[in-house]
Amino acid sequence: MIERAGELAALGTASCWVITALSFEASGKRIGSLSLNLVRLTLAMVPLAVWGWFTRGAALPLDADLHTWLWLGLSSLVGFVFGDLCLFRAFVYLGPRLTTLVMASVPVWAALFGLVFLGETLETREVLGMAATVGGIAWAVAKRERPAEPAAEDESEDENENESEGDGPPALPGGLLGVLTGGLAMALAGSLGQAGGLVLSKYGMADYDAFAATQIRVIVAVAGFAVVVTASSWWPKVRVALRDKPAMGFAAIGAIFGPFLGVGLSLIAVKLAPTGVAASLMALTPILMLPISWLRGEKIGLAGLLGALIAVGGVALLLL
C-alpha cells in the first residue's frame, strides 16, 4: 500500500473537481442545475460499469450485501441528492463566494461526525493541519476580489436566463434578509449533507470496492433525482437539455471527472484516511482553481494568495 494513499486520493479528488466545476459551470448555464444533476449521474453509470467489468469482472455491484446497499444508498440520498440540491439553491440565493465560504465547514462537520459515529480520533498534527487548510481556504475565498464589471453583467444575464427557465429560487419572505437567511440555511444544510454523506459512505463501504460503492451511490442518486424531477414536472426541460449537444459534451466531461473519478477517489480517501483529514484535502478545489481564475481575468489579491499559502501549509502538515 502506498504511504498516505488516502490523503493522495483526496488530493486527486480535489483536482478532479476543478475540471468538474468548469465543465458543469458551462453545462449548467445552458440547461439548469436540476437537469444537469440527473444527466451527469446517468452518464457516469457508463464509465463505472466499464471500470467494474475490467477490474472486478462485474459491470454492476450485484455482489454487495444488503448492509452495503442500505448505507451507501442512504449516503447517496443525504450527500448527492439532499446535499447537492441545497448547495445549488444556496448558489442562487447567496452567490458562489458566500456559498463556498460556508461549504468550507464540511471538513469540520466530517471530523465531528467521524468522531461521534465512527470513533475516529485525530492526532495533534492532523488537527493543526486541518485548521490551517480549512482556515486558508476560507480566507482565500472570503478575500477574493469581485470580477470586473463586464463579467458581473454577463453572469447576471446568465442567471436571469436560468431563472426564466424556472430554475431560479422561489421568493422568500423578509426581503434581502430573508434571502440571506434562507441562503445561509441552504448552504449549511448542504455542508451537513455532504459531510454526512462521507461518513455514511465510509460506514457502508467498509472493505467493499470503492468504485463499486460509488456505482451504488450513483444508481440510488439517479433514482432520487428522478423522483425530484417528476415531482417538479421537470421532464420536458430534461428532454430539451438532452438535445443541447454542447451542454451534453460538457456534462459528459464533468461526469467522468466528477461522479466517476472524483467520487471514486473520494471513497478511497475516506476508506484509507480519517474522514476529517480526507474532507479537508478534498476541499482544496477553490485553491486549485486560483490559477485558472487568474487566467480568466479575475484578480486574486494578496489576501487570497496568503490564504492559499496557509492552506498549502496545512496540506504539508497532513502529509507529514
UniProtKB/TrEMBL annotation:
Superkingdom, natural source: Bacteria
Residues annotated as domain EamA: 5-140, 183-319
Keywords, alphabetical: Membrane, Transmembrane, Transmembrane helix
SUPFAM superfamilies tied to this protein: Multidrug resistance efflux transporter EmrE (SSF103481)
GO CC, alphabetical: membrane
Transmembrane feature ranges: 36-54, 69-91, 98-118, 176-200, 212-235, 247-270, 277-294, 300-319
Provenance organism: Plesiocystis pacifica SIR-1
InterPro entries given in the database record: EamA_dom (IPR000620), EmrE-like (IPR037185)
UniProt-recorded name of the protein: EamA domain-containing protein
Biased amino acid composition, Acidic residues: 151-166
Region of interest called Disordered, as start-end residue ranges on this chain: 148-171
